[in-house]
Amino acid sequence: MTETLEAAAPLAIDDATADRLFRTARSVTEWTDAEVTDAHLRAAWDLAKFGPTAMNTLPLRFVVLRSDDAKARLLRYLPDGNRPKVEAAPATLVLAHDAGFHEHMPRLFPVYPGIREQLAPDTEARDGMARTNALIQAGYLIVALRSVGLSLRPMNGMDFDGVDAEFFADSGYRSFMMIAAGLTEGEGTEHPRLPRLALDEVAQIL
Amino acid sequence: MTETLEAAAPLAIDDATADRLFRTARSVTEWTDAEVTDAHLRAAWDLAKFGPTAMNTLPLRFVVLRSDDAKARLLRYLPDGNRPKVEAAPATLVLAHDAGFHEHMPRLFPVYPGIREQLAPDTEARDGMARTNALIQAGYLIVALRSVGLSLRPMNGMDFDGVDAEFFADSGYRSFMMIAAGLTEGEGTEHPRLPRLALDEVAQIL
């Protein structure tokens, strides 16, 4: 019945893409040895950057760990369950938000002169805006990384303060998530897909 | 130069889809009179629901306002600038997070027996988890709504407490965003696209 409904749905993208981005995409635990290249990262960002944010604030920042040395700097802040995934993945992105996003606003949101100065005094408000919009951007980035063919394992089990001190001490960015990424052969996981909530369980249509 | 780089990128989706979901998609202000149907909403959710969340918590909830009466209930909580968009759009989704998501966990995350009971006592922690993951899901939902051909205007200028009292008094959901949606002819906005940050401004590759 579900398949019939999905087949009847007015998708504006092709079925293979709907599968790749959403329907058959899985949070994987195994990757091939193929590298995550600069071109992968650039292509993914060149999609994700266009996702809408409030006042075009674009507060998402990230560091990409590919070398063993770089990964080792992250591993010490992870619980046991997440370490093997970072060790196995060709790359891990550590996502963070930048409460200093307002410094870019004269360029990013020129339609509102003075917005940088208006936001500057309220660090707490900026931190909230940055976290909110960076999380939405994390959703875009996950879809964008899949759009360049990567298979992902998003995780948020980590010592955020430790990670911030390790990677973001100078910038003041605050981490909230990591995404292990690489290429897979087959499904990339042995776990069956978990259930999802149906539309009428999450939405009311008035 | 940018176009050359994008053309050279290893996209796993076709260019028309990359445009529709990200590159030429815009936050619009004008829609046609065509309805946003139940089939649009079902098809979009049947994509977005598969986006990964921490422990498969799926805390995003939403109400869809299509009738004039339903829209009128929202309009009173909006600043002047956002009212015309909700009035013009065939549908507006009000997104919220459900701190009571743990009640679904025995079904959604059966691999962790007892997680419902473990989460139950800490309302504040659940509220934070719900908001974090619902925001990531908002990113998925925006891409999914575009995947069924809809053009969107995400907005967060609203009286959240007022909206919660109006729509979520019984459920206890907490609103964080709205998305006006419909079909467009042409770009759907007269505003030029705002600039974006480049990869080397947001990411460090180690």
From TrEMBL, chains A, B:
Sequence intervals crossing the membrane = none
- Give any GO molecular function from the UniProt entry: 3-hydroxypropionate dehydrogenase (NADP+) activity
Enzyme class, broadest EC rank? oxidoreductase
Nitroreductase domain residues: 25-182
What name goes with this protein? Malonic semialdehyde reductase
Q: Which InterPro entries match?
A: Nitroreductase, Nitroreductase-like, Nitroreductase_HadB/RutE
NCBIfam families documented for this protein: PRK05365.1 (NF003768)
The keyword Transmembrane helix is annotated on this UniProt entry: no
Recorded hits in Pfam families, A to Z, give: Nitroreductase
- Keyword entries, A-Z: Oxidoreductase
Q: Which organism is it from?
A: Myceligenerans pegani
As recorded in UniProt, its EC number(s) are 1.1.1.298
What is this organism's lineage? Answer: Bacteria, Bacillati, Actinomycetota, Actinomycetes, Micrococcales
